[in-house]
Amino acid sequence: MTGPHALKPFLLAFPGPLRDRLVAAVLSGEKTATTGLLLEYEAEKEELPEVGERSALIDSDGREVAVVEITEVQVLPLRDADLRLALAEGEGYRSVAEWRAGHENFWHGEEMREALGDPGFVVDGDTMLVVEWFRVVEVLREA
User: Fold this and answer.
1) Taking a C-beta distance cutoff of 8 angstroms, is the pair 78, 129 a contact?
2) 3-class secondary structure per residue, the chain
3) Which CATH number is associated with domain 8-135?
4) Could you state, in order of their start, the residue ranges of all structural domains in the chain?
5) What pTM value is reported for the model?
6) pLDDT tens readout for residues 14-40
């Protein structure tokens, strides 16, 4: 999607095996939601996504593999994450506790702490999240 009507990138995790798994889950229809930290948006001075917005799903090689459309956006504290979200993440979580443990592991990882500029960053129940619900509107290439 290059040119004057280029779509902004839809990035999941950091490039590597996790992103590859998440992109595959989006393309298979298993993943219909993703969760980020509100702090990430603030640190990058990025506006929150809006319903109807379309973005290009990017794989680990930087290729556009699909166009996704935002169907719902929620801003909520971590403690309010529910089973609907855990299941929609498409990562095989069977409970909110599993989902939270997996996400805390990611958010407490070195790459995330470096991206946030805070080597001691820790989430808790009050940490604000941005949940994006989406659907694939066009597959551009298989991941």
Assistant:
1) yes
2) CCCCCCCEEECCCCCCHHHHHHHHHHHHCCCCEEEEEHHHHHHCCCCCCCCCCEEEEECCCCCEEEEEEEEEEEEEEHHHCCHHHHHHCCCCCCCHHHHHHHHHHHHCCHHHHHHHCCCCCCCCCCCEEEEEEEEEEEECCCC
3) 3.10.400.10
4) 8-135
5) 0.90
6) 999 999 999 999 999 999 999 999 999
